[in-house]
Amino acid sequence: MASHLDLEEQEQIEELKHFWRRYGPLLTWALIVVLGAYSAWTGWQYWQRRQGVQASVLYATLESAVATADQTLVSRAVADMQDKFATTTYAAHASLMAAHFFLEHQAPQDAQKALQWTIAHSPDDGLGCVAKLRLAAVFMEAKDWPAAKAVLSGQCPASFEALVQDRLGDIDVLEKKPVDARTHYRAAWLAMKDQQSYRQLVEVKLASLGVDPRQEEKKP
Questions:
Q1: Superfamily of structural domain 23-144
Q2: 166, exposed or middle or buried, with CB in 10 Å at 0-12, 13-18, 19+?
Q3: pLDDT in tens, 19-45
Q4: Which of 98, 118, 133, 200 is least crowded, fewest Cβ atoms below 10 Å from its Cβ?
Q5: At 88, is the pLDDT very low, low, confident or very high (cuts 50, 70, 90)?
Q6: What's residue 20's pLDDT?
């Protein structure tokens, strides 16, 4: 009986050896890949959390500098955000905040750089489009109409289409191009069905150009 059991055990051992010789290296590499992927994922998660914490601290420094109107510290803090945390939305928000600060303190070139950085690097398309609208306003203030239009020529999320068309209409008015302005304002008005307060403002702009969009909408 004992001999029979010993024989079965030997057969099982030989089968295991055969299985391991055939599949062992493959299983080992598969395990290494799985463990490596898990390690990389947990490392990435840790790095992301660490980046977020550090970025939030620097962002708070920027907010403090803005509150105390420390222009030197604002410049340094936003530059650090852009350099060290470019892939985070913190950096995009920081650049928008800094741009607003620079405009309030008569530093349009610094504001322009901050907005251009946001357009080029923001991981959020919405924030990038906000930067485009604000940069277009900076160029409009400088009476650089072609640059303002060029900024708005890129892609933006559909939810920003009405604002882009409205801004293009404003540029047309400044360029004394009423026909083009009507076209852009009409497009803005049609896209603003869910933004009634802003839509009324666009209606006023259209009325100043001799257009009643509500009457036009009723036409068959």
A1: Tetratricopeptide repeat domain (1.25.40.10)
A2: buried
A3: 556 655 555 554 444 444 444 334 334
A4: 200
A5: confident
A6: 55
Concatenated DSSP letters of 131-189 = HHHHHHHHHHHTT-HHHHHHHTTS---GGGHHHHHHHHHHHHHHTT-HHHHHHHHHHHH
The per-residue pLDDT for range 155-212, each reduced to its tens digit, is 888 888 989 999 999 999 999 999 999 999 999 998 887 667 788 888 888 988 888 8
Which amino acid is present at 2? A
CB–CB of 107/77 below 8 Å? no
Residue with tokens 């083009």: 180
Count, in order, helices (H) and strands (E) of the chain.
Answer: 10, 0
- Residue 145 tokens read as 């109409």
CA distance 18 to 10: 12
Quote the CA–CA distance of 72 and 88 in Å, as a whole number: 23
